Amino acid sequence: MRLGSGDIARFEQDGYLFFPGRFSLEEAAMLRTEAQAVYAMDRPEVWRESSGVARTAFAAHTFNEGFRRLGRHPRLIDPAMQLLGGPVYMHQYKVNAKAAFDGDVWQWHQDYGTWRRDDDMPEPRAMNVAVFLDEVTAANGPLLFIPGSHRHGVLAAGHDLQTTSYPLWTLDRATVTQLAERGGCVAPTGPAGSMLLFSSLLVHASPPNISPFGRTIVYLSLCHVDNHIRRFQRAEWIAHRDFAPIEPMADDCLAELVAAHAQAAE
Ligand code: SIN
Ligand code: MN
């Protein structure tokens, strides 16, 4: 999939692009089942909320076949290569749960703020590609974006080690207010299989999920290979060290797995 010049202009203006229903409901359902299997594992990559439900699973592309294929999917990798101007490697891979009733907040932040400060990534030549595995609605803890906030560079942030189980460089309320007064605040919502591309400088957050509906989203954090991290203080499965360019697979690589699972169940 190639982005058109209108898409690229919109990405530069707003800092994100939203493509509802980019993957089929079957592809999303297969990955949702895989996510449940991953969350049931007792592994250091699976982080939990204080209630015990999964919050996020890191690096699932290294130990799960469905997520390995998604991590090399051309619908995700090709537009990222186009926007970042060359080959990309996987800096981080997360399957975020935001579980029904117990899914907790992600405070306001820029991802590149953390990658710069913790991992010494030289430039914000990196971005996120997200895929909804559940329908995301206003009710189940959607992502919140401040359009245009990526145009302000790296913003001052404090290291939040307390609010949740995941340490994050977060923005103060005055900064968020000022940015939102200019850009507003949006919550892209849509069916399972929807795809979001967003700048690593875009200011974003998500509220807790007190609805009875789960909200699973996968995030590929892709970085231009020349811009790889220089500091290795975080676990390898949080900030990856494999800087080899990702070779995209065929477009039907997930559909093929859906068919294989259906056949095995017969
Ligand atoms: C993130 O900002 O990295 C995750 C936010 C979310 O999944 O709600
Ligand atoms: Mn983030």
What would the principal axes of the Cα set say about the shape? globular
What proportion of the residues form beta strands (DSSP E)?
A: 15-25%
Give the helix level as a range of percent: 25-40%
Average pLDDT, all residues: 97
**CATH architecture term:** Sandwich
Give, in spatial order, the strands making up the sheet with the most strands.
Answer: 1-10-6-12-4-3-2
Written overview of the protein:
Strand 8 (158-160) and strand 9 (168-170) form a beta hairpin. The protein has seven helices and twelve strands. It has one domain: q2cbj1_9rhob like domain (Jelly Rolls). The strands form three sheets. Strands 1-10-6-12-4-3-2 form a seven-stranded antiparallel sheet. By secondary structure, the protein is an alpha+beta fold. It has helices at 5-14, 25-39, 65-70, 74-84, 111-119, 173-183, 253-265, and strands at residues 16-19, 46-48, 54-58, 88-96, 106-109, 126-132, 144-145, 158-160, 168-170, 195-199, 204-206, 217-224. Bound molecules: succinic acid and manganese (II) ion. Succinic acid (SIN) binds next to strand 11 and strand 12.
Q: Secondary-structure blueprint of this entry?
A:
Blueprint: H1 5-14, E1 16-19, H2 25-39, E2 46-48, E3 54-58, H3 65-70, H4 74-84, E4 88-96, E5 106-109, H5 111-119, E6 126-132, E7 144-145, E8 158-160, E9 168-170, H6 173-183, E10 195-199, E11 204-206, E12 217-224, H7 253-265
Antiparallel strand pairs: 1-10, 2-3, 3-4, 4-12, 5-11, 6-10, 6-12, 7-11, 8-9
This protein binds succinic acid and manganese (II) ion.
